[in-house]
Amino acid sequence: MQLTWYDSNSWLIEMAGKRILLDPWLVGDLIFGNLSWLIKGTKKTNFPIPENIDLILLSQGLEDHAHPETLKILDRNIPVVASPNAEKVVKGLGYTQITSLAHHQTYTFANRLQIKAVPGSPIGPQLVENGYILKDLETGQNLYYEPHGYHSPSIKQDAPIDVLLTPVVGITFLGLIPFLKGQKKALELCQWVQPQYILQSAAGNDTDFEGVLTSILQPEGTIEAFRQLLTQNNLSTQVLQLKPGEPFTPELKQRNVISV
């Protein structure tokens, strides 16, 4: 398994012999609904578009996960696995091979990689987007991704999970309303699935944000504080924030899982 973080929610996941581009925002600015005055993200570094992508995986239909400018420059023939909401985005852009996954549905790609959709972030009162569990069917190594820190208790049945990609440092509106759930939920998640690694996803240092919302967004916790929480709770999980654009290969130990 090799992982490359491109800041924000964007990852290149290499596992099961496949290259999966997850929630890519790689070019242009990030603007929600053409409301640049509300919030606008600009990348400090322009990363090259990864080559030889086997699959695009989209957790949500919002612009910070299904980024229109990025999706427009990728090959429309690349297979896509998406939440039902993200399916609408890629279908409108002309992608030809789309698999939509509802919660708890699974899809096996190339007979080597299993993708399971799990309940993720609520977007409005009636829409809950996707998180994903990816599993290499040959080695048994697995990975979980949820970009806003909303973790369904249903993932306990997939424990243990080797690697988590999710927020460790949260973000709130005025310190009151969570935008990204952080320390408390990340600790609970680690207690559920006993990961070997948890890698900070979502907000990073390689993006500049401007607009009205930036004045009321506040960070919640730090990575070092989260490390201390893990130690206090007798968890050996390694917590890291990767440098954007630099590949990382986790040193995963073989687990002996006993079914009860």
TrEMBL record:
Which domain of life does the UniProt lineage start with? Bacteria
Secretion signal, residue range per the UniProt entry:
none
Under InterPro entries, the record lists: RibonucZ/Hydroxyglut_hydro
Query: What name does the UniProt record give this protein?
Result: MBL fold metallo-hydrolase
